[in-house]
Specification:
alpha+beta, Ribonuclease iii, N-terminal Endonuclease Domain, Chain A, two-stranded antiparallel ribbon, 8 helices
């Protein structure tokens, strides 16, 4: 098989082959090694490379904003987009007769992480960094990146901080008429800041507050 991918040529082609072998491939080839162990390694290497890049490029950012940027930079969606810009889909090893994968399938993100893990084993940090650079991952997501689930996104980011944090939601006030109340909710995450939003339901107000905090952290460089 061709031993080059994302601009890096593997000295040990077997490592790349393993990185491209999805778990489903073992349904028809039980003796094959899939890419899950390499994915585990690559996930850690990817986090390090992203943190190293962001630390150098955003010297004014505190932990909160840096964590937000890293979370989006190495998200499954970002890795799937990077995979779509390459020939990765046609090189994955899957079970025979498998139907085509949608562009955003997590198997692509898993494979990218596995390839980085394989590169680390094949050529060390510089090999992994070469692939990382070729992926062209961006720390600035589209505004809609967290629109579907801002509370979940904020939870993921806060738990990725050191030490892990937990968003705190408090009810600031309830106004309006009894049949149409308006809830005002404040959310706070230590190291990121706080934000307040109002809505006709407590759940929607919490989501709006979470989205507001995510937007403020993404745009500010002076948080403590």
């Amino acid at each position: 098989m061709m031993a080059e991918i994302f601009g890096y040529s593997f000295r040990n082609p077997a490592l790349l082959e393993e990185a491209l072998t999805t778990p489903s491939y073992r349904m028809t080839s039980p003796g094959a090694s899939d890419n899950q162990r390499l994915e585990f390694l690559g996930d850690a290497v990817l986090d390090f490379l992203a943190a190293d890049r962001l630390y150098a490029e955003y010297p004014g950012d505190a932990e909160g904003p840096l964590t937000v940027k890293r979370t989006h930079m190495v998200s499954s969606a970002a890795l799937c987009e990077a995979a779509a810009r390459s020939d990765l889909a046609g090189r994955l090893r899957r079970n025979k007769g498998a139907s085509p994968l949608p562009q955003g399938a997590k198997v692509y993100a898993d494979a990218v992480e596995a390839i980085i893990g394989a590169a680390w084993l094949d050529g060390g940090l510089e090999a992994a960094r070469r692939i990382f650079d070729a992926l062209k991952l961006s720390p600035s997501p589209k505004a809609a990146a967290w629109d579907d689930n801002p509370k979940g996104c904020l939870q993921t980011i806060s738990q990725a901080m050191t030490p892990p944090r937990q968003p705190e939601y408090t009810t600031v006030g309830i106004s309006g008429k009894a049949h149409a109340p308006v809830f005002t909710i404040k959310v706070k995450v230590e190291g990121m800041g706080e934000a307040t939003a109002s809505s006709g339901s407590r759940k929607d107000a919490e989501s709006a507050a979470a989205a507001a905090l995510l937007r403020s952290v993404q745009g500010r460089r002076d948080l403590v």
